[in-house]
Amino acid sequence: MFPKVSRNVVIVASVLLFHGAALWLLQTGLLRRAVEVLVPVQLLSEFIEPPKPKEAPPPPPVLPKAVTPPAIAKATTLPPPPIPLAIADPTPAPNAPVGVVAPPKALPPITAPVATNPAPVAAVKVELPSSDADYLQNPKPAYPAMSKRLGEQGKVVVRVLIGVDGTAQKAEIRQSSGFDRLDQAALSTTQRWRYVPGKRGGVAEAMWFNVPINFVLE
Fold first, then answer.
1. Are the CB atoms for 147 and 182 separated by under 8 Å?
2. Is pLDDT above 90 for 192?
3. Which of 49, 135, 144, 216 qualifies as a cystine partner to 181, CB 3.0-4.6 A?
4. Global pTM?
């Protein structure tokens, strides 16, 4: 009877036997032929073909260096030739005329024209208004009865603006007699009177005129 063999020993021996047979078939080329029959040629070549090495990126292009133009030598400027200086010769020329130069004659002074006084302008004649012309027939101011009984009397000066038509435009008391009744009587009388208008250069013109009124008890 054969001795009992362990199960692990059998497994290890089988694996070794399998690997040895595969190695022998690979060396003899039988394994490749069997694979070519079972697997297409294209897959086999892809399977067996080793991976291609990675291509290195191309180096960056080298730019040409800028060529600097050669420096142009500056033209050297020569200093201008010296200007000959004139030397005064005190000896006169043989043909030079000899004589005395007379000084120029002084011109007479220019006198400014004397301005003559212009002819005086004739003054414009002014004629003041009037209230005592005979043809005006102005009545005398009425003496207030109450002023007579009280003995009121005095002089009133009324300032009247006389128009070009001879009528009183405005009237105001310039000088009071000291009594209001006499002042009002003189004011109302001068406003009703007719006047000779004032004239300037023969032309009638509105003017202010002072009219005196005397209140005297007889």
1. yes
2. yes
3. 144
4. 0.44
The predicted-structure confidence for 86-123, as pLDDT tens digits, reads as follows 555 556 555 554 555 556 666 666 776 665 666 667 78
Mean pLDDT, the chain, whole residue set: 75
Please state, in angstroms and rounded to a whole number, the distance separating the CA atoms of residues 207 and 127: 10
In order of their start, the domains of the chain are: 8-48 (no CATH), 126-215 (3.30.2420.10)
Q: Which uninterrupted H or E stretch holds 157?
A: strand 154-162
Residue 100 class from Cβ within 10 Å (0-12 exposed, 13-18 middle, 19+ buried)? exposed
End-to-end CA distance of the chain: 208
Residue 10 — φ and ψ, nearest 5°?
Answer: -60, -40
Residue 174, sorted as left (phi over 0), alpha (psi -120 to 50) or beta, turns out to be alpha
Enter the tokens of residue 161: 């603006």
Secondary structure element (H or E) that encloses residue 174, with its range:
strand 168-175
* Cα 218 from Cα 212, distance rounded (Å): 19
Closest CA to 216 of 186, 171, 191, 193: 186
DSSP codes, 14-67: HHHHHHHHHHHHHHHTHHHHHHHHHS-HHHHHHHHSPPPPPPPPPPPPPPPPP-
What number of residues does the chain have?
218
What whole-number distance in Å separates Cα of residue 218 and Cα of residue 214? 12
